[in-house]
Specification:
Keywords: Heme, Iron, Metal-binding, Monooxygenase, Oxidoreductase. Pfam families: p450 (PF00067). InterPro entries: Cyt_P450, Cyt_P450_B, Cyt_P450_CS, Cyt_P450_sf. Belongs to the cytochrome P450 family. It is a single chain. Helix 7 runs parallel beside helix 17 (about 340-360) and helix 11 crosses helix 13. This protein has a six-stranded mixed β-sheet with strand order 1-2-3-9-6-4. Strands 5-11-10 form a three-stranded antiparallel β-sheet. Strands 7-8 form a two-stranded antiparallel ribbon. It has 17 helices and eleven strands. The protein is about 50% helix and about 10% strand.
Length: about 400
């Protein structure tokens, strides 16, 4: 019998991971219901995830093969919703831009943004760290990366909020359309007056045949970088703080040896990764996998948080342990669509956790752990708020 799970409803509870573990013991693939009501095949196991993420029979080009499963219906998203050879061609160009001086020199600015936000908190008090830090910090970094003028950042923040927490599909599409429209204007301004940022690098970049990215492609990439790069880091930081504070022995180990911060980031990614599921893919033909037949035209996605806790991959997967080897986690995917922004996400999380723990000798949840509320999302694993008590 096929299991159908309302993932957003389940994600609103602290018991998501335990329920996924229970399901994964008897199912490698389940059916999940998305926020718009449609159902998709959803892969749980690590081995099957690795296999199918590289399977060319599953297409990312949902706009062509299954428009109802698109990330933003009506707006094709560069890279995320492309197959090879177009995907490989665009990815080479973007990868080169990510290696540019504008990106390499971003680290001091990340540290400066972190310091400015933590300065606003003062030496002691109680605050929602999502509102005061983990939300604005990656947003400012993305705006710096893209070269968004300071006076335009408030609308950018509102679009990001509206897209990630829209009450309806229509509201999300409206916010996405406004964001895409803004990006078109920003691209036009940078064509006339380039600055040292990723968007200017991409405008100047050329394919092997001398061609360039269109305004629509550039706008699509800028918008998805804002949405994906902002939401995932916001919730990665909040989840990491939550899991360190609810595992005091691991927090003590990190305070005693700050060089473990890299291990803390990797374990946070594995233990409760913020990018809970991938975008939809569509079967180009019937595919037998995990004991089911995925029919041609059906949607498929991957529940990375379940794969990261697969007991066939690691012992005691539900323990939060900075001492474990986490190199095999799947939080950034695998295969042709491996996350391009993984280095930046790791960089932001490392700098933020290091500075927060350096500044605040006292850091604790300001409410009982059982009262912390989780986002009802079928794509992002995160908290509604993170009220913390802190002091130097």
């Amino acid at each position: 019998m096929t299991v159908v799970v309302d993932l957003a409803e389940l994600a609103s509870t602290a018991g998501l991971e335990q329920e996924l573990d229970r399901l994964a013991k008897s199912h490698k693939i389940i059916r999940t219901r998305q926020l718009n009501g449609q159902e998709t095949w959803t892969v749980l196991g690590a081995a099957l995830t690795r296999e199918l993420l590289s399977d060319p029979r599953l297409s990312n080009d949902v706009h062509r093969h299954a428009p109802h499963g698109a990330l933003v219906p009506g707006l094709a998203v560069m890279l995320l919703e492309q197959d090879d050879p177009d995907h490989a061609r665009h990815r080479r160009l973007v990868t080169a831009a990510f290696a540019s001086r504008a990106v390499r020199q971003l680290e001091p600015r990340i540290a400066e943004i972190t310091d400015q936000l933590l300065d606003k908190l003062g030496d002691r008090g109680t605050a929602d760290f999502i509102e005061e830090f983990t939300y604005p910090m990656p947003l400012e970094v993305i705006c710096e990366l893209l070269g968004v003028p300071a006076e335009d950042r408030d609308p950018f923040r509102q679009w990001a909020m509206d897209i990630s927490a829209a009450p309806s599909l229509e509201a999300m599409q409206s916010a996405a359309a406004e964001l895409f429209g803004y990006c078109i204007g920003l691209i036009g301004a940078k064509r006339e007056r380039p600055t040292e940022d990723l968007l200017s690098e991409l405008i100047a970049a050329r394919f092997e045949d001398g061609g360039a990215l269109s305004d629509e492609e550039l706008s699509s990439f800028a918008a998805v970088l804002l949405i994906a790069g902002h939401d995932t880091v916001t919730n990665l930081l909040a989840n990491a703080l939550h899991d360190l504070l609810t595992h005091p022995e691991q927090l003590a180990a990190l305070r005693a040896d700050p060089s473990l911060v890299g291990a803390a980031v990797e374990e946070a990614l594995r233990f409760r990764g913020s990018a809970m599921t991938t975008v939809n893919r569509v079967a180009l033909e019937d595919v037998e996998a995990g004991g089911v037949v995925i029919r041609k035209g059906e949607l498929v996605r991957f529940l990375l948080n379940a794969a990261n806790r697969d007991p066939e991959v690691r012992d005691d997967p539900h323990a939060f342990d900075l001492g474990r080897a986490t190199a095999q986690h799947l939080s950034f995917g695998v295969g042709p669509h491996f996350c391009l922004g993984q280095r930046l996400a790791r960089q932001e999380a490392t700098i933020a956790l290091t500075e927060i723990l350096r500044r605040f000798g006292t850091l604790e949840l300001a409410v009982p752990a059982e009262e912390v509320r989780w986002l009802p999302s079928d794509a992002i694993r995160g908290l509604v708020e993170l009220p913390l008590r802190y002091a130097r």
